[in-house]
Design brief:
The complex is a heterodimer of chains A (306) and B (272). Helices cover 75% and strands 0% of the residues of chain A. Chain A is mainly α and 306 residues long. In chain A, helix 3 (75-107) packs antiparallel against helix 4. Chain A is flat, with a radius of gyration of 26 Å. The relative contact order of chain A is 0.12. The mean pLDDT of chain A is 88. With 272 residues, chain B is mainly α. Chain B folds into 2 domains: 16-60, no CATH class; 63-271, MetI-like fold (Orthogonal Bundle). Chain B contains 15 helices and no strands. The longest helix of chain B is centred in the first third of the chain and has 32 residues, at 63-94. The chains are: A mainly alpha (306), B mainly alpha (272). The interface between A and B is large, with 95 and 96 residues.
C-alpha cells in the first residue's frame, strides 16, 4: 500500500503544479489587458480628478478638491446634473412600465408573439445615430410629420421640439423611452416565462378570477427579482445618455439639454480640461456604483429566487 | 385576454414604435421640395426622386468604407475579447491555482466600471503614443471584456468534469482543451456574447468620436454623424437615405436571426 502511495505522490504533485501553471498562463492575457486597459486607466482617472491636468500643459499640479469646488459653483455643471436627474426620472419609470406592459400584453395570447417582439425590439439593434437623425426629421418644427399632423388637428403653433428649451429635455426623454422599452420588454418576457403556469391556474381555481388580481397576487411578487434588475439596469443606462444629445442638440439650446456624460465629453475633449473632466467622470462613477449597491442590498434583503 | 383587444392594441403601439422607421424610409424616397411642403402622405409624388437621394449618398458618402470599417472594428474587438476571455473563463471555472480568487475579484470589480471612466487616461495614452486615428485606437481599449470572462466562467462551471478528464487522458494540454473541448460546448454563450458585443460596438458613438478626427476610419455611427453635420445641410431626403442604408445591415441581420438576437441580448442584458 505504501509503495503504491509513494509511486502516486510525485505525479499528483506534478499535476497540481501543471494545473496551477495552466491557470496562470490561461489567465495571463486577460490579466495583462485588464491591468493596462481597465485598472490603471480607471485609477489614473480617479487621480486626475484631483489635478489641474490639461493636455499640453505639463506637469499637472495636485489641487485637492478644487475641481469639485469649481463643479459645485459651476452653474453649467449644476444644470447638467439637474437635467440628467430629470431625464433619468422620466425615462426610467416610463420605459420600465412600458416594457412590463408590452411583455404582459404579448404573453397574454398566442398570436403575433414573434412579430410584435421583433417590432418592439427593433430600436435596440438600430444604429442610434441614424435613428436620432430620423427623430430629428420626425420632430422638425416646420417640415416634420409630427407638427404637420398637429397643424392638421388645429394646433396653430406646435412647439419646436428639439430647439425650444422648454421642450428639448422632454423630447429627448421620449426618444430615450422609445430606445429602451423594447430592451426592458425582452427582460420582462424572460422573467415571465420563468413563472410556472400552474401557479396562475391554481389562483384561478382558488377563486381569483380577475386577470388584474391574478397579476397582483401571483405574477407581480414572483417578478420581483426581474423588476429590481430591470429598474437598476434602466437607471444606469439612462444615466449614460450621450448619443442622442451629441447628435441632436449638443447640450443646447442654452444648456437646456446638457447632461453629465456630454459635459464630461466637452470639458475633456473639446476644451481639453482633463482634470475637470475626470472629476465629472468620478461623479458619474459614484452614481453608477451607488445604484449597483442599492440593487445588491435589496437583493440580499427581500427578493428571493424560488 | 381576448385577442379582440390585445391585437389592435399591440398593432397601435407597434405602429408608434415603427413611426421613425416609416417616416425615415418615406422621406428618403421623396424629392426635397416635396419634403418641404410637409405633406402627410407616405408615398412619394415622383417615382424617381429616390434615385437622386440614394445617388447623392452613394456619390458623397463612402458607404462601403464606413461599413467595412464597422466590420473590421467589431470583428477585431470580438476576436480579441474571445481570445482573452475564453481561456481566463476556463481557468477560473475549472483550474485550481494560487491567486484565482484575486483574478475573480478583479473581474467582479471590473464589472462595476462603465467604459466611460477609463476613457480619459486611455485617450491621453493613445495621443502620447501617436495612435489616434487608427483601427488600433478603436479596437484596443475594448479588447478586454470582464463581462465575457464572467459569462464564460459561469458557462464552463456547468461543463461535466468527466469531459475534461477524458480530454486530459487523451493527452490534450489545457490550452487545447480550452479551444477544442470547452469552447465548442459553450456555443450558446459564445453566440450570445458575440451578438451583444457586435451590437454594442457597431452602435457606439462615444469612443470613435473621441479618437477619430477624419473619416478614414469612421464607423457607420460616426459616418452618419459626419454626413449630417458637414454635408447634408437641409437635404433631409439624402440624410434619410444615408440613415436607411446605414441602419439596414444590423436590422436585416436581426430579422434573419431574430430569436438568437433576442436571447443573446436577454442573457447578456446584465451588462447594460
Amino acid at each position: 500500500m505504501s509503495e503504491a502511495a509513494l509511486a502516486a505522490a510525485p505525479p499528483r504533485a506534478r499535476r497540481r503544479l501543471g494545473e496551477a501553471l495552466g491557470g496562470w498562463l490561461l489567465s495571463l492575457p486577460a490579466a495583462l489587458s485588464f491591468l493596462l486597459l481597465l485598472l490603471l486607466p480607471t485609477l489614473a482617472a480617479v487621480a486626475m480628478a484631483f489635478t489641474d491636468f490639461e493636455l499640453g500643459l505639463w506637469p499637472p499640479a495636485w489641487i485637492g478638491l478644487e475641481n469639485f469646488r469649481e463643479m459645485w459653483e459651476d452653474r453649467g455643471f449644476r444644470q447638467s446634473f439637474r437635467n440628467t436627474v430629470v431625464y433619468v426620472g422620466l425615462v426610467a419609470p416610463a420605459s420600465v412600465l412600458l416594457g412590463l406592459g408590452l411583455a404582459l400584453l404579448i404573453e397574454a395570447g398566442a398570436r403575433g408573439r414573434a412579430l410584435f417582439r421583433a417590432v418592439f425590439f427593433l430600436p435596440v439593434v438600430s444604429l442610434t445615430v441614424a435613428m436620432a437623425a430620423a427623430w430629428q426629421y420626425l420632430l422638425h418644427p416646420t417640415i416634420g410629420p409630427l407638427n404637420a399632423a398637429l397643424r392638421n388637428f388645429g394646433v396653430a403653433a406646435p412647439p419646436a421640439w428639439l430647439s425650444s428649451s422648454d421642450w428639448v429635455l422632454l423630447s429627448l426623454s421620449a426618444i430615450g423611452v422609445w430606445e429602451q422599452a423594447g430592451f426592458n420588454m425582452v427582460l420582462f418576457m424572460a422573467g415571465l416565462t420563468a413563472i410556472p403556469r400552474e401557479l396562475r391556474e391554481a389562483a384561478s381555481v382558488d377563486g381569483v378570477h380577475s386577470a388584474f388580481e391574478r397579476f397582483r397576487l401571483v405574477t407581480w411578487p414572483l417578478l420581483g427579482p426581474t423588476t429590481l434588475f430591470v429598474v437598476t439596469i434602466t437607471l444606469i443606462r439612462s444615466v449614460r445618455v450621450f448619443d442622442t444629445v451629441a447628435v441632436l442638440t449638443r447640450g443646447g439650446p442654452n444648456k437646456a439639454s446638457e447632461v453629465l456624460l456630454y459635459t464630461m465629453y466637452t470639458e475633456g475633449f473639446t476644451f481639453l480640461r482633463l482634470g475637470y473632466s475626470a472629476a465629472i467622470t468620478l461623479v458619474f462613477l459614484v452614481i453608477v456604483l451607488a445604484l449597483m449597491l442599492v440593487q445588491t442590498r435589496l437583493l440580499d434583503r427581500r427578493v428571493h429566487y424560488g | 385576454m381576448a385577442d379582440r383587444w390585445r391585437l389592435p392594441l399591440l398593432a397601435l403601439l407597434g405602429l408608434l414604435m415603427l413611426a421613425p422607421y416609416i417616416w425615415m424610409v418615406s422621406a428618403s424616397l421623396k424629392a426635397t421640395d416635396e419634403l418641404f411642403r410637409a405633406s402627410l402622405t407616405l408615398l412619394p409624388e415622383t417615382g424617381t426622386a429616390w434615385m437622386e437621394n440614394y445617388g447623392r449618398v452613394w456619390r458623397e458618402v463612402p458607404v462601403a468604407q464606413y461599413l467595412l470599417n464597422g466590420v473590421i472594428v467589431c470583428g477585431g474587438i470580438l476576436v480579441f475579447q474571445l481570445l482573452f476571455a475564453v481561456p481566463a473563463g476556463y481557468a477560473l471555472a475549472k483550474l485550481r491555482f494560487p491567486g484565482r480568487e484575486w483574478v475573480f475579484g478583479a473581474v467582479m470589480l471590473g464589472l462595476l466600471v462603465p467604459p466611460h471612466v477609463p476613457a480619459l487616461p486611455l485617450y491621453v495614452a493613445f495621443s502620447e503614443l501617436g495612435w489616434l486615428n487608427s483601427y488600433a485606437a478603436l479596437i484596443i481599449p475594448s479588447t478586454i471584456s470582464v463581462f465575457a470572462i464572467f459569462l464564460f466562467r459561469q458557462f464552463f462551471k456547468s461543463l461535466p468534469e468527466e469531459l475534461i478528464h477524458a480530454a486530459r487522458l487523451d493527452g490534450m494540454g489545457e490550452g487545447a482543451i480550452v479551444w477544442r473541448v470547452a469552447l465548442p460546448n459553450a456555443w450558446p454563450a459564445a453566440t450570445a456574447f458575440a451578438i451583444f458585443s457586435v451590437v454594442a460596438h457597431w452602435n457606439d458613438l462615444f469612443w470613435p468620436l473621441i479618437v477619430l478626427t477624419g473619416t478614414d476610419y469612421a464607423t457607420p455611427a460616426l459616418g452618419v454623424l459626419h454626413f449630417r453635420t458637414e454635408e447634408a445641410g437641409d437635404d433631409f431626403a439624402a440624410l434619410m437615405a444615408a440613415c436607411t442604408i446605414m441602419t439596414a445591415p444590423l436590422v436585416l441581420a436581426f430579422l434573419f436571426a431574430q430569436r438568437r438576437f433576442v436571447e443573446g441580448i436577454a442573457t447578456t442584458g446584465l451588462k447594460g
